[in-house]
From TrEMBL, chain A:
Keywords: Membrane, Transmembrane, Transmembrane helix. It comes from the Bacteria. This is Membrane protein. The chain crosses the membrane at residues 6-28, 40-59, 79-98.
TrEMBL record, chain B:
Keywords: Cell membrane, Membrane, Transmembrane, Transmembrane helix, Transport. Belongs to the AzlC family. This is Branched-chain amino acid ABC transporter permease. Its main location: membrane. GO terms for cellular component: plasma membrane. GO terms for biological process: L-valine transmembrane transport.
Length: 99, 239
């Protein structure tokens, strides 16, 4: 059971950032009136961030990872969350063995 | 008094399918955190204090030793920015909550319990008993499974052997599918992916997250411009 000071600092920073987004509604409630375009950009935040985080692993690591990511994307149109994870993991192990 | 207990039980019975789905995700999170060198205590602290699945997975993906604090906080802020809109919509429905109950209750507002509360609020007044009946077991489950995952994961060794390092990538792809809204999302994903991969290659981490996210938002803004009069209208009819 170790607790690194730098790690603790990162966790506390993450906790404060998260809580700030969760209580921001108290100040905004009833006053938020986004244009449809701004709303679309706001809605795009989660997918944009998620893709920005994984792009190096999916597109800039190797062909095995890129192929497995494509297969996972295909699976994501049909399967629930864990099914997609299973397909991705099995595919990457398989492709790494082949390529 | 009995309605208090009824509401708490109602909350529990609404949340349990989401809780069940979170069990393997929590175990996976803990195992990946252990793979990046976090101790079970550190994993438990993160799940207890942050309690945000997407942001926590992203943090572990970005994790290095020593922890890149500003990159981690920034990525957390970006990923959780959606909470601003979610809480803005939820707060007016928390009429029966004291100030303290609101402040504590919102600490653990996640996608799942937020969505269930919004659904409940359409037909019933939202009570603190209902909210905490959902939130307490859900949070306890996330903390327990992620800590267990960190204990077990450390014993398993290098996650690359089982392809577990790729689990994030697959998980995030699945999450993006959950946020899919057609053409606008397509351009968002294409721009974010290209910009992030290029930045990662040419400049290096952690700048790829910011570059990718901003290009994705820009693409959404541009793509939504062509069709603004239509998409805003049909939405109330569908819901």
């Amino acid at each position: 059971m170790t607790l690194d000071a730098q790690t603790l600092l990162a966790i506390l920073g993450m906790a404060i950032a998260t809580y700030a987004t969760r209580i921001a509604g108290l100040a905004l409630a009833g006053r938020l009136d986004l244009s449809p375009r701004a709303q679309a950009a706001f809605d795009a935040i989660p997918p944009a961030v998620l893709i920005a985080v994984i792009a190096p692993s999916a597109l800039a690591t190797g062909w095995a990872e890129t192929a497995a990511a494509a297969l996972a994307a295909l699976a994501a149109t049909r399967l629930p969350l864990l099914g997609v994870v299973a397909v991705g993991v099995v595919a990457v192990v398989g492709f790494r063995a082949l390529i | 008094m009995s309605s208090l207990r009824d509401d708490a039980r109602r909350g529990l019975s609404d949340i349990w399918p989401a809780m069940l789905a979170a069990v393997p995700i929590g175990l996976l999170f803990g195992a990946l955190a252990a793979g990046k060198g976090l101790s079970p205590l550190e994993t438990m602290l993160m799940s207890t204090l942050v309690f945000a699945g997407g942001a926590q997975f992203a943090a572990i993906e970005l994790w290095a030793t020593p922890a890149p604090v500003s990159a981690l906080v920034f990525s957390t802020l970006l990923i959780n920015a959606r909470h601003v809109l979610m809480s803005a919509s939820l707060v007016p429905k928390l009429q029966g909550f004291s100030r303290m109950q609101t402040l504590v209750g919102l600490y653990y507002m996640a996608d799942e319990n937020w969505a269930l509360a919004e659904k409940r609020a359409r037909t019933h007044a939202l009570t603190p008993a209902y909210w905490f009946g959902m939130v307490v077991p859900f949070v306890a489950c996330w903390i327990a499974t992620s800590t267990l995952g960190a204990v077990v994961g450390a014993a398993l060794g290098d996650p690359r052997r089982f392809g577990a390092d790729f689990a994030f990538t697959a998980l995030f792809i699945a999450l993006v599918a959950a946020f899919w809204k057609g053409r606008v999302t397509f351009w968002t994903v294409a721009a974010a992916g290209t910009a992030s991969a290029l930045t990662y290659r040419l400049i290096g981490p952690p700048w790829h997250v910011l570059a990718g996210a901003l290009c994705g938002l820009g693409a959404a803004w541009i793509a939504a411009g062509g069709a603004t009069p239509e998409p805003s209208k049909p939405e109330p009819l569908q819901r």
